[in-house]
């Protein structure tokens, strides 16, 4: 049977005017800023007006470690949101925006798939409402103002060897990872080493996604540490007087974007920090607004639960004062087989033994999520090649770990295929069994926080960090940053820092290469192993096959 591509399905969607989607949530036309007919921003005035309402229930969708076999976390998030609405619940979805770089590289878009998608798919995966361009511009403005400050006399006494604010672009471009800037003579400033990260790794992105309003945004931007003086005292963004203009550039980007699913159910798509190098969740303002206008809010956290769910719990929930009522852990039979040692080319053949072997990865994620005090259900995202014996093997494994596994066919059937999952999620969320707590307290030492995550979530034996890194953490503690959570930057493909070690490995160490203080966002970034904050394009990037067809439609996006 031939299946339509995601973009073909999205193109056939019968979208409602965005004002009608807003009306479902009680958002009047005067509180929507339309971007065309099918997307709009929600006004701060409306957000302020609903703050006295009770919160709905928050459902987190996370997953096993990603494999080339595919897991379908966003697809499941969308399918579950549609399924909840199908069974008569007032539900909405909150997901991240897609980064341009990965769209043209290997990862593809982030709008779901099959008959569980958010539309307009093409716009969401390209320029959308311009949020990422605004973040890039605000970040670049600060970069320009730092070098301009140095050029015109350096009143803040910045040590040009200790400028820590890098530049950003929303594209995978390895050639920009390390650069030398200000070459070309006296009129171009003082030459120094610099570099680029991808926009979604920018601290401005993290700040926008954690700020509660424009006033909080401006304060956090001012708190960004951009450089150090010769005496190693920090120079802040507010010392350069850039935070006001940056806030102006981000004014509209702070407002959540309202769109719809293929089944015309409402969704906020807002913000997009990478999950392996940042905290990997959509914006706090979108999630908290959704909780005021819907009874159930389905959101996702990036990559596997060792990264996305851990950061959602320890960073986003802690900062925003929110807590999930239930967690959906997405797995596929194909991924279980791959974790069990089957090559990608052989995944189509039944192999129950490999499924059983690969379930160890799933089991560890179940244990980890449970450790946060939240009830869990496993969603088996159905593929047409799955056999009944393989699906049953996953069900049996989960039952032995005290959780239920529900087969969900939303990719193929939309909400009809996710009804069973939706009913189970409602049962868990309404059970009152959630007793959420982060896995470390605010006042724990920074290195101890790193060790807690490494040992309890990754099951590592130890954290390897040289004295320079340990001293840096101590200095930050003494400077008043001890209470910050830590944001682990590591490969998404494994519990270890080696992307090739699948399954549930033990007996490994976590090497810390560098630590970065994100004082504005309010966390410490811990760079582990070979992780890059600027990705590169693969040998055959997706960009090679993206083009306009004769009808002027986009082809090649996925």
Give a quick summary of the entry.
This protein is α/β, with parallel strands linked by helices and 558 residues long. It has 3 domains: 254 residues, 3-Layer(aba) Sandwich (Rossmann fold), CATH 3.40.50; 119 residues, Domain 2, N(10)-formyltetrahydrofolate synthetase; 83 residues, Formyltetrahydrofolate synthetase, domain 3 (Roll).
Task: Write structural notes for this entry.
The chain has 558 residues and is α/β, with parallel strands linked by helices. The protein has 3 domains: 254 residues, 3-Layer(aba) Sandwich (Rossmann fold), CATH 3.40.50.300; 119 residues, Domain 2, N(10)-formyltetrahydrofolate synthetase (2-Layer Sandwich); 83 residues, Roll (Formyltetrahydrofolate synthetase, domain 3). It has 20 helices and 25 strands. The strands form 6 sheets. Strands 1, 2, 3, 4, 5, 6, 14, 15, 16, 17, 18 and 19 form a 12-stranded mixed sheet that branches. Strand 22 and strand 23 form a beta hairpin. The relative contact order is 0.16.
């Amino acid at each position: 049977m031939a299946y339509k591509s995601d973009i073909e399905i999205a193109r056939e969607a019968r979208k409602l005017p965005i004002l009608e989607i807003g009306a479902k949530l009680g958002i009047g036309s005067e509180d929507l800023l339309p971007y065309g007919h099918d997307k709009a921003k929600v006004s701060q005035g409306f957000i302020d007006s609903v703050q006295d309402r009770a919160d709905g229930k928050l459902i987190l969708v996370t997953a096993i470690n990603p494999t080339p076999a595919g897991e379908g976390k966003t697809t499941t998030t969308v399918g579950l949101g549609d399924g909840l609405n199908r069974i008569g619940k007032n539900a909405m979805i909150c997901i991240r925006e897609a980064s341009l770089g990965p769209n043209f590289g290997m990862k593809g878009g982030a709008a779901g798939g099959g008959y569980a998608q958010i539309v307009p798919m093409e716009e969401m995966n390209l320029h959308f409402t311009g949020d990422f361009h605004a973040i890039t511009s605000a970040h670049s403005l600060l970069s320009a103002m730092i070098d301009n400050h140095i050029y015109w006399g350096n009143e803040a006494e910045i040590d040009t060897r200790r400028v820590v604010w890098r530049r950003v672009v929303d594209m995978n471009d390895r050639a920009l990872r390390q650069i030398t800037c200000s070459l070309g003579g006296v009129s171009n400033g003082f030459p120094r080493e610099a570099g680029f990260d991808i926009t979604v790794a920018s601290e401005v992105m993290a700040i926008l996604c954690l700020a509660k309003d424009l006033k909080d945004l401006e304060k956090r931007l001012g708190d960004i540490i951009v450089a150090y003086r010769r005496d190693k005292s920090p120079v802040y963004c507010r010392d350069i007087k850039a935070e006001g203009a940056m806030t102006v550039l981000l004014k509209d980007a702070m407002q959540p974007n309202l769109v719809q699913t293929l089944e015309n159910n409402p969704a906020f798509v807002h913000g997009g920090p990478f999950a392996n190098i940042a905290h990997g969740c959509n914006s706090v303002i979108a999630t908290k607004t959704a909780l005021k206008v819907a009874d159930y809010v389905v959101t996702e956290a990036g990559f596997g639960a060792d990264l996305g769910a851990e950061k959602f719990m320890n960073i986003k929930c802690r900062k925003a004062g929110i807590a999930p009522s239930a967690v959906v852990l997405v797995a596929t039979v194909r991924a279980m087989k791959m974790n069990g040692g089957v090559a990608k080319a052989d995944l189509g053949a039944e192999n129950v033994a490999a499924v059983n072997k690969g379930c160890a990865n799933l089991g560890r994620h179940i244990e980890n999520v449970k450790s946060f005090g939240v009830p869990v259900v496993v969603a088996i995202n159905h593929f047409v090649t799955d056999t009944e014996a393989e699906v049953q093997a996953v069900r049996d494994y989960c039952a032995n770990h005290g959780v239920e596994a529900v087969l969900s066919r939303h990719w193929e059937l939309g909400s009809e295929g996710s009804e069973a999952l939706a009913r189970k999620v409602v049962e868990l969320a309404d059970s009152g069994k959630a007793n959420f707590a982060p896995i470390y307290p605010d006042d724990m030492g920074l290195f101890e926080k790193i060790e807690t995550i490494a040992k309890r979530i990754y099951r590592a034996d130890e954290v390897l960090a040289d004295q320079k890194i340990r001293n840096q953490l101590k200095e930050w503690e003494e400077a008043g940053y001890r209470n910050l959570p830590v944001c682990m930057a590591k490969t998404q493909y494994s519990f270890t820092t080696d992307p090739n070690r699948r399954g549930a490995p033990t007996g490994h160490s976590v090497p810390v290469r560098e630590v970065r203080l994100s004082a504005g966002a309010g966390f410490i970034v811990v760079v582990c192993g070979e992780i890059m904050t600027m990705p590169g394009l693969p040998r055959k990037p997706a960009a090679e096959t993206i083009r306009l067809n004769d009808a002027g439609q986009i082809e090649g996006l996925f």
